[in-house]
Request: fold
Amino acid sequence: DGGITQSPKYLFRKEGQNVTLSCEQNLNHDAMYWYRQDPGQGLRLIYYSQIVNDFQKGDIAEGYSVSREKKESFPLTVTSAQKNPTAFYLCASSTGTPQYNEQFFGPGTRLTVL
Amino acid sequence: AQSVTQLDSHVSVSEGTPVLLRCNYSSSYSPSLFWYVQHPNKGLQLLLKYTSAATLVKGINGFEAEFKKSETSFHLTKPSAHMSDAAEYFCVVSDGPGRRALTFGSGTRLQVQP
Reply:
C-alpha cells in the first residue's frame, strides 16, 4: 500500500534533549513537509522540501532541523533550542505539481516534553 | 498574502440534519482551496478540492463545497450528518508563485448528536 508513515506514534523527551521524528513515504512524491499542530489551532509549517538535498524554512523553523538525503525520507529533529516542543507533528508529501498542491498526510507523532 | 478564516470553532448538529461549516479566504492570486478532515489523534484526509474548474465541488462521504469568488467563501456542506462525521475540519488555501505553501484555517470541530 502506498502512503506515509511516521514513527514513533508517541514520543517523550526530557528537557535539553534532541529528538528525531521519522517520516517515510512510498508515493514517489517530490515534495515533503513538516507541520506542527497545537490544540485548537490549525497546522503551522515548520520546514518543507521540494527536492532531494534541498529544503526551506517554513513559518516556525526556529529550534528545528531537517535533512532530505533520500526522496522517500524527511526526518525532523526537535532540538533543545525549541522552547515549547510539546505538540502533535504531522508530515505530508505531494507531487509538487504547481497547478494544485494536494498534500497527503501521515498519522502524526505526539511529542511530550517531561 | 493569503489567509483563511473559519467562522465557527465548534458546530453541533443532530444526526440526519444538514451540516454547514463556513470558510472565508483572502488571496492575492487565483487560489486553490481544500477541505481536510481530521479524526482524533490521526492525520488529515482530503475531503475535496477546488482548482479553478467547476465552482461546486463534490467530495467524499457526501460532502460538497461551493467556491464563491464574489464572497471569497468556500463553505462545506452535507445534506445529512452521520455520527461518523464527528471530527475536526480544516479549510486550506494555496496560492502564490509555485503554490508550494498551504495556509490552514484554525479548524471547526463538528459534533453530531444522536
User: Anything to note?
Assistant: DSSP finds no helices and eleven strands in chain A. Residues 19 and 78 of chain A are 5 Å apart (CA to CA).
